[in-house]
Amino acid sequence: MIGLNWLAPYDFSPATILGYVLVLGFYGYGLLKMPEDNRPGSGRILVFVVGVMLCYGVMQTRFDYYSQYMFFIHRGQHLILHHLGPLLIALSNPLPVMQFLYSRIKPGIRRALSPLGWIYRFLQHPAVASFLFVGLIYFWLWPPIHFNAMLSRDLYWIMNWSMLLDGLLFWWLILDPRSPVSGNALGYGKRILLLALVAVPQIILGATIVFSQGMVYDVYEVCGRAWPMAPETDQLLGGLITWIPPAMMSILGILIILRRAMREDGKAFPYSEKLKATHS
């Protein structure tokens, strides 16, 4: 019974449940229907499901209750929604499944969905994507906005969904499995630069919260905390979660990109082949 209480939604949202069911349902349908040669391996499928379920867990289990009444748990919630969950989903490379599902859509429906493609390409512009990635964190942590978001059920859901969707867009841009040599994907160097650039303002924001004098987010005093923790400790832990793990995620992303670039065997950096030929 204790386990069921932890897994049961604190604030039941039919739209959220439906969204996650549709994502897993369409993904499973694509896996079953697509040719076996194009089907991702079990490891990639597992990473995708884990990423989706982590996001679901922080939105529709008892975890969500503590996120609303403890600042540091809230920051952990957004760490998963904006960083870890989307990174795992993008790392699993669901592109073959997405392409297969798209090929099953009727041409008329594709034409009707074409405006979404324009919006997607705009949001995936490197400058726009990086600005939104950092800007949304600052926006929702601006004390007056954060106060209202934690007291308004509708605004709270908008906040969480915006963090999740923005995280998916950004990490897909960074971990796009297509090679920049043979496709239109963003170059590896630009991806590394973006990861470094978005880390800096997150570090500054986290450090500002950690070293701030007095309470920055007093909404948790108004609503009461789930645990008898000192407000200063709660804010300190929340600031550290805002500061350190996102920076580590950027470093992890850079290492993944460097590994991919090295596996290109010189294709990502074409001058290396010329240097080899010169020395030979």
From TrEMBL:
Q: How is it placed in the membrane, per its record?
A: Multi-pass membrane protein
Entry-linked InterPro entries: Caa3_assmbl_CtaG-rel
In Pfam terms, one family for this protein is: Caa3_CtaG
Query: Which subcellular locations apply to this protein?
Result: Cell membrane
Where does it primarily localize?
Answer: membrane
Provide one Gene Ontology cellular component: plasma membrane
What's in the keyword line of the UniProt record?
A: Cell membrane, Membrane, Transmembrane, Transmembrane helix
Give the transmembrane region(s): 12-29, 41-59, 79-102, 122-143, 155-174, 194-216, 236-258
Put simply, this protein is called Cytochrome c oxidase assembly protein
